[in-house]
Amino acid sequence: RTTMKSLRFISAEAFVSNAEFARKSLGAVAHDLYPLLFKASYLLEQGEVIHDLVENWPLFDFDMGKLLGATLDYQEDLSHRTCSVCLESCLTGLRDYVLNQSSPYMKKLKVVDLTGIKDVEVQFCKCKKTMGRWARTQLLSKLCSELLVCLQQAQCTPGTFEISINVLIDLFVTERNYELVVQALLKKCSCPLKICCVAFRSDNLALQKFFYIIKLTDPSLLRKLEVVHNVHLEMEHLEILFNSIHFPLLMSLTLPARTFNVRRFTATDEQMLCNIGEKMGEMMQLTELSVSFSILTGRIQKLLSPLKTPLKMLDVSNCSLNHADMAYLANSFHANHLEALDLSGHDIPELYPSTFFKLLSHCSSVLRSLTLEDCNIQDTHVNMLILGLSPCQKLQEFKFIGNPLSSQALKHLFTFLCELPMLKNVEFPVPRDCYPIGITYPVDDASLCRFDHQKYERVAEELNLILLQANREDVQASTPLFGSYDAAVQETNNELGAYLIKSFKETLEKFTTSFNKMN
């Protein structure tokens, strides 16, 4: 599919395609043409031109999401292109904007917004080298430190020290870039580029370091907080966090696995859970909550009922919910607002079929994403599932891998899915009849890939044919055996792997020591 370009955009492409000429001629370009030239340069990956455009940016703001998004001149949205050449040129151009010796009175830039950049799995840039969220965090922090050194050493005009630019960014911090980011945040007052953290993600970080850096980010500005892999944040730590730091603008919260475990609860723990729920209600504006892989049996109401804003996204996958939890969700004020819901890891047909369908009917008018992985949905449940999904006319994404469905049942389900007008993405399971007879569900990791691959390919072709015959080429159907794409995990998987090996080694050493003591 080709996107139409205006004559203005075609002219801009022609202008920036000759980098040497474009860079020499920038001084004669009208200020209101800079955004047009920037998008054209980004599309053609003209790094040097991008650098010079940013270094001489004549406007008050520089918003990546708006600059790369759909415009009248060129409808295609380029904000999902995290091209390394383009982004590095952008950020170094920003540093050089500050150092550029032109009159400070010419410098109008006050806000740079990098939060509109979207990290996706498939990249269309020619260089094929991406700069993810972690690398953007790393580079911006490094440039802020370099800038301070340059300002101390160079003979800058007095006006340079008066430049103050707020740089809005989604920070991603791990053990590997922690020190660099901390230094940049500590020196924020002295640096012309002020890092303003709008969203914060932390993986592979000691708890003490997490508490320290989260205070440095200015939590009063934070809208999204993700504490995901290998940050050992348990319920008592969460209570301390919420008691000591306020997050008045926080709308989205993701907590690591096993933050809550009601199987170990004492009376003190029950009170602690109530306190956490009350704090989330009092000092946040939560609309998105992810507490996957915690054990919350019978406690969902305690956690969610104090919230004053209705949730639009809820991930309670693998949380061992019981009938009371599902009944609360179905009847709560959140139900009518849920746009994204993940109930994976619960035996829905066995435990609470009617309550689940009640919840589904309440959120059907707004639901965009539904995830029901490893929910024991079998062939006999497909007709009921179709009945429940029929009102969900805004559904864009349906993920149901790990369910014991036959290829025949999948064909029946796909025929129905073609009727959902907004549907764009389907993640379906390997059909049960592709696995050896006697396979048990959920399928363990060792058996996950032991299926008839040729038969699976034939079934996948038939399912895609159903979509094609219904003129639904816009629907992407796939079977990601090891889970959906996670840009953050993909970018830091080496560090994550090393951390897991280290943790395993330490556990093994402790076990060996204990065993030797016993002998």
From TrEMBL:
Q: Which organism is it from?
A: Lanius ludovicianus (Loggerhead shrike)
Q: Which Gene3D superfamilies match?
A: Ribonuclease Inhibitor
User: What protein is this chain from?
Assistant: Leucine-rich repeat-containing protein 14B
Which domain of life does the protein's organism represent?
A: Eukaryota
Instruction: Show the taxonomic lineage.
Output: Eukaryota, Metazoa, Chordata, Craniata, Vertebrata
Q: Which is one Gene Ontology cellular component term of this protein?
A: cytoplasm
User: Which interval of the chain is the signal sequence?
Assistant: none
* SUPFAM superfamilies named in the record: RNI-like
**Keywords for the protein's UniProt record, in alphabetical order:** Leucine-rich repeat, Repeat
Coiled-coil annotation reads: none
What family is this protein classified in? Belongs to the PRAME family. LRRC14 subfamily.
